[in-house]
Amino acid sequence: MSDRPVILVVAAADAEAEAYRGYCLKAVAAAYDVVLITSEEPTWEVPYLLDCVVIPDPTDQAALSDAGRSLAERHDLAGVFTWTEWYLVPVARLARRLGLPTTAPEAMQACRNKATSRMLFARHGVPSAASVSVRTRGEAKSAAERIGYPVVLKPAAHAASIGVIRADNPQQLHTAYEFAAQAARAGSENTSVLVEEYLDGPEVSVECVTHHGQTTVVALTRKTVSAPPYFEELAHSVDAADPLLDVVAPAARAAIRALGITDGVCHVEMRLVDGRPRLVEVNGRIAGDMIGHLVRLATGIDLPRAAADIACDRAPDLTPTRSSAAAIHLLYPHASGTVRHLDSDGARPHWLERIHFQHRAGDQVLLPADGGTMFTARLGYLITTAPTGTLARTRAEQATRQLHIDIAPRTADESSLGRAA
Q1: H runs (alpha helix) in 213-351
Q2: What 3-state DSSP class applies to 252?
Q3: Which stretch, 129-138, 173-182, 281-290, 411-420, has highest mean pLDDT?
Q4: Whole-angstrom Cα distance, residue 388 to residue 99?
Q5: Phi, psi of 323 (to 5 degrees)
Q6: 3 state DSSP class of 216
C-alpha cells in the first residue's frame, strides 16, 4: 500500500486529452495516488491511476456524486479537482458533499456565467467591458446601439472562444447574433448571449494560484488571436521576465477576489486598452492549449501539482527554478478541406520541445466560416523554448515554416453542402 495521499481528478475524455492534458495527469501522479472519474474507459491514463469510475456525463451532478461517494468508500480521499471547464461547478459541489477543500460552488458558477462575472467586476470596481445579456436578435440590436459599434457577441457560458464574434455594424449583427446564439444553445448551463464593448488592444492572460484567499501571480501569457470577426487563439508565449507582469497583476488579483475564489489555479484573460488592463473573463482552472506546460518550461513552477496541493489543503510550492521563455504555435489550415499530408522536416533543433499532429491524411477539416470550429480544424501544435519570449515566438514561426502541410481545398459542391447543413 502506498502512503501517498489519494486525490480524485475529474477529467474529460476525448481524442486529444493526452496531447493537451497529459502533462497535468503526469505531474499530479508524480506526487499523489490518483483516482479518476471520466466519461470513457481510460487508455493512456492507466499507468497513472490507482482507480477509476466511468460515468456517461460528469456534468450530471447526481451521477458524479454517486461516483465520488463510491471512490470515497474505497479510498481515503484528500482532495478533488478538475482542469475541465465544463466540470468546474459539479466538481466544487462534489467536494463540498464529500467534505473536501474547495472554492465555493457559487464562485465557480460566477466564473462560468460571464454575465455574473461582469456584474461582480462592476460591483468591485474591476476594470472590465460594458455588457448586456440578451435572448433575441432585437435585444441584441438595441444593446449594440447603446454600447456602440464594434461590439462582441458571445455565449454567456462557454469556453475556448466558441461562439465569440465581432460585429462592426448593424448589417453584421444579424449573422453575428445567430453565430453566438447557436453556440449558446448547444450548452446546458445558460443559453443567453452577451453583447459587449469591444476592447481594442493586445490580449494576454495571467496565470494565478490562490490559496486561502491569497493570490500569487505566477506568469503572464502573451496571445496571438485571429483576425476579426473571430477571436480564435493562434499562439501563446510565456516569458518569466515579462515586464507586463507588474502591470496586470493587480487587476488579476482584484478579479479573483471579486468572484469569491479562495483556492485553486486560475487563468485570467484580459486586454490592454491604452496600456491598461481590462478584464475579459476568469477561468477557474489551469489554462488550456498547453499554457501550464509553457509556464513550467519558462519558470519551473508546476501548476498541475499546485492545483492538486491546494485541493488537498496543502500550501503549493511556487518558487521559480528557472527564468526563460516558451511558446506554442497552434497549427491551422489556410482553408477548409481534406488533409493530404502532415509532416515535419528533418532534424529537430534542441529548442523545438515537441510537435504534435492531431489530424492525419484523409481527415476533413472545417474552419468556422464553413460550419466547423477552430479546435476541430486545428492540425496540431509545436512548442519552442528560448531565453526570451520574443526569440521563442520567432523560433515557433521558423519551425512552422519547416512543416509539410498539404490540404486539398473543398470543392464548390462541398462548400455549398456545408453551408446548407
Answers
A1: 245-259, 291-299, 303-311
A2: helix
A3: 281-290
A4: 44
A5: -140, 95
A6: strand
Q: What is the DSSP letter of 161?
A: T
Can you tell me the distance from the alpha carbon of 272 to that of 278, in angstroms, rounded to the nearest whole number? 6
Residue with cell 455588457: 131
Contact 223, 205 (CB under 8 A): yes
Torsion angle, CA of 240/199/171/154, rounded to 10 degrees?
Answer: 70
Q: Give the chain's domains with CATH numbers.
A: 6-102 (3.40.50.20), 130-197 (3.30.1490.20), 200-323 (3.30.470.20), 326-421 (3.30.470.20)
Task: Give the chain's radius of gyration (CA, Å).
Answer: 21
Instruction: State the average pLDDT over residues 397-415.
Output: 86
Note the residue count of the chain. Answer: 421
Q: What is the pTM of this model?
A: 0.93
N-terminal to C-terminal alpha carbon distance within the chain: 55
- Helices and strands of the chain, counted as H and E runs: 13, 19
Q: Give just the sign of the alpha carbon dihedral 376, 380, 383, 389.
A: negative
DSSP state of 127: -
Distances (CA, A) of 364 to 168, 338, 367: 31, 5, 10
Per-residue pLDDT, averaged over 4-22, amounts to 96
- Please state, in angstroms and rounded to a whole number, the distance separating the CA atoms of residues 421 and 417: 6
At CA 367, angle to CA 191 and CA 193, rounded to 5? Answer: 15
Rounded Cα distance between 364 and 249, Å, is 42
Q: How many CB atoms lie within 10 A of CB 377?
A: 23
Taking only the tens place, the pLDDT of each residue in 87-97 is 999 999 999 99
- The overall longest dimension of the chain from CA atoms, in Å, is 66
pLDDT at 253 over 80: yes
**Alpha-carbon gap, residue 37 to 16, rounded angstroms:** 17
Cis amide prior to 150 (ω within 30 degrees):
yes
